[in-house]
Design a protein that fits this description.
This protein is of the alpha/beta class. It has ten helices and eight strands.
Length: about 300
């Protein structure tokens, strides 16, 4: 790949229900993400951490919502950062909680439109994050980014005006195992391709990911991958605040990454919900870095033995 990997730290924690995700960017760096990418022969530019000044935002009648102004401000800043960085290289956003994806997807959708293409999103997560501001009960805004980015109603004037939405039919979710009733109805109505862990168990992860990548290739689209720590089984990735048993195994996750790498379609990446405070001697951070390396070209036979 000729274009550099552009690392952008996003120390946002306000979208999550507990403290710690703001330390994620430092943990990814300490786990050797830049070094792993350079070892694959890739150019890496680390732009440090993004800062999002809080702006005035209209209040919302849902009293459960937390930190609306802060998350909306991050969304605006990240949309601009994603659009700008994607003109120069492959942006990798180091989270931070999953609320950051509202901005990264908005910016990448704008980039795709500027190139006359469509944006496709591979969403690897235990949760669809498809709540609206009206339906969220927890009020934690890491549960709304996909609904916002796909143009679901109810976000204006509270969130930034969405320039180019992601077509929900161009979203493929893999690994779901915690979906609220309101989200289930909204996903079905919007036409999102949603595969829960039963589908992974019954069919295997390769056919599910492979069919989606074939669609992206046929459409000539840009591909954004959003990888949440809780996509993985907590037995191998304990450093996350939203623990849902029964997630992807080590090999399932690596296979998905390797398939995306083989496709040559990747345009941008989110690494989200790493909470170093809950991790065990960096296990989760190291695994996420290893997965990112597989996504960028590392192969099974080339993987070094890990020592702890």
């Amino acid at each position: 790949m000729d274009r550099p990997c552009i690392l952008i730290g996003v120390p946002v924690n306000e979208g999550a229900g507990r403290l710690g995700c703001d330390m994620g960017p430092s943990a990814f760096r300490a786990a050797g993400l830049a070094e792993a990418l350079r070892a694959l022969g890739l150019a890496v530019e680390d732009r440090g951490n993004l800062v999002a000044p809080t702006r005035n935002v209209a209040s919302h009648p849902n009293a459960a919502i937390k930190h609306l102004a802060t998350v909306a401000s991050w969304t605006e800043s990240l949309s601009e950062a994603a659009f700008a960085a994607s003109a120069l290289g492959l942006p990798i956003f180091l989270g931070g909680d999953h609320s950051l994806s509202a901005g990264t997807m908005a910016g990448m959708s704008r980039r795709a439109a500027a190139e006359g293409r469509d944006l496709f999103v591979l969403w690897l997560d235990a949760h669809p994050d498809f709540h609206s501001l009206d339906t969220t009960v927890s009020g934690n805004l890491h549960g709304v980014p996909m609904a916002y980015a796909t143009g679901q109603p109810g976000f204006e004037p509270h969130f930034p005006r969405l320039g180019t939405r992601v077509d929900p039919r161009n979203v493929c979710m893999v690994g779901l195992r915690s979906v609220d009733a309101a989200e289930r109805r909204a996903l079905q109505a919007a036409g999102v391709v949603a595969h829960d862990m039963r589908a992974v168990d019954e069919k295997g992860i390769a056919p599910l990911v492979g069919a989606f990548l074939a669609r992206v290739a046929a459409a000539g689209g840009l591909l954004h991958v959003s990888l949440d720590v809780d996509f993985l089984d907590p037995g191998i990735a304990p450093g996350v605040g939203t623990v849902v048993p029964g997630g992807a195994t080590f090999r399932e996750a690596h296979l998905a990454m390797e398939m995306v790498s083989d496709s040559g379609l990747l345009s941008s990446l989110d690494l989200v919900e790493l909470n170093p405070f809950l991790d065990e001697r960096g296990r989760t951070a190291l695994l996420m870095v290893d997965l990112a390396a597989s996504l960028m070209g590392q192969r099974v036979l080339d993987r070094p033995t890990q020592t702890y």
